[in-house]
Amino acid sequence: GEDVEQSLFLSVREGDSSVINCTYTDSSSTYLYWYKQEPGAGLQLLTYIFSNMDMKQDQRLTVLLNKKDKHLSLRIADTQTGDSAIYFCAESNQAGTALIFGKGTTLSVSS
Amino acid sequence: NAGVTQTPKFQVLKTGQSMTLQCAQDMNHEYMSWYRQDPGMGLRLIHYSVGAGITDQGEVPNGYNVSRSTTEDFPLRLLSAAPSQTSVYFCASSRAGPSEKLFFGSGTQLSVL
């Protein structure tokens, strides 16, 4: 079945760049997603990339997609303490009826 | 604009008790879903619905029932609570399906003793 893998923790200093990596299994997913969860809250869509794109940039966020290796990454430039959160990578299941989420990467930003 | 509203925010149950977690959205979304979030397990889909009167099972449906009598509401019922159902539960909705932006509620933290 579909599976999404992420590293569990990342610690960076304020002002540095953060790179969160993800691998997925279902190459038929039309879109791939990054969701952000702040403490005590639900998830919010951060950004997404269409499967026929290699890169998408949105202000401080850059998403890179390597379809051959089924690898997705999220780069946050000039990371701020407010970026501390859990970041989830997600893909659609084969039936297109649900999102499959990774276990989440906890990003800790120190000042 | 309320978005997705979940109630209650916190609940403690004894083993064997039943209860219903409420989820309501005011965005006229057709697609609604329930996830549970456990440490080290990420989010796992319990049940989902693509419209009123239509529901289907997700990855971990055992011990849970759902119904979708209206577009707005998608309650999750625990028939006989077990300690393994201790978790944080999230309801999420989108306009037409999961490939569109999912809007999440703020979650219900459930403890089963």
Structure explained in plain terms:
Chain A is mostly beta strands and 111 residues long. Chain A has strands at residues 4-6, 9-13, 18-24, 31-37, 43-50, 55-58, 61-66, 71-76, 85-92, 99-101, 105-110. Helices cover 0% and strands 57% of the residues of chain A. In chain A, strand 6 and strand 7 (61-66) form a beta hairpin. Chain A starts with a strand and ends with a strand. The mean pLDDT of chain A is 92. Chain B has strands at 4-7, 10-13, 19-25, 31-38, 42-51, 54-57, 64-66, 76-78, 87-94, 103-104, 108-112. In chain B, the strands form 2 sheets. In chain B, strands 2, 4, 5, 6, 9, 10 and 11 form a 7-stranded mixed beta sheet that branches. A 4-stranded antiparallel beta sheet of chain B has the order 1-3-8-7, with no helix packed on it. The N and C termini of chain B lie far apart (36 Å). At the A-B interface, strand 5 and strand 10 of A face strand 5 of B.
| SSE run of chain B | EEEEEEEEEEE
What is the residue-averaged pLDDT of chain B?
A: 94
CA-atom Rg of chain B in angstroms: 13 Å
Oligomeric status of the shown chains?
A: heterodimer
By DSSP (H or I, 4+ residues per run), the number of helices of chain B equals 0
Structure classification of chain A? mainly beta
Q: What gross morphology of chain B would you assign? A: globular
> How helical, in percent, are the residues of chain A?
under 10%
Strand content of chain A: over 45%
Q: Span from first to last CA of chain A? A: 41 Å
Number of helices of chain A: 0
Number of strands of chain B: 11
Average pLDDT over all residues of chain A: 92
Protein chain pair with the most extensive contact, residues per chain: A-B, 21 and 23 residues
> Structural class, from helix and strand content of chain B?
mainly beta
Largest sheet of chain B: 7 strands, mixed
What's the end-to-end separation of chain B, in Å?
36 Å
Helical content of chain B (DSSP H or I, runs of 4+): under 10%
Number of beta-strand segments of chain A:
11
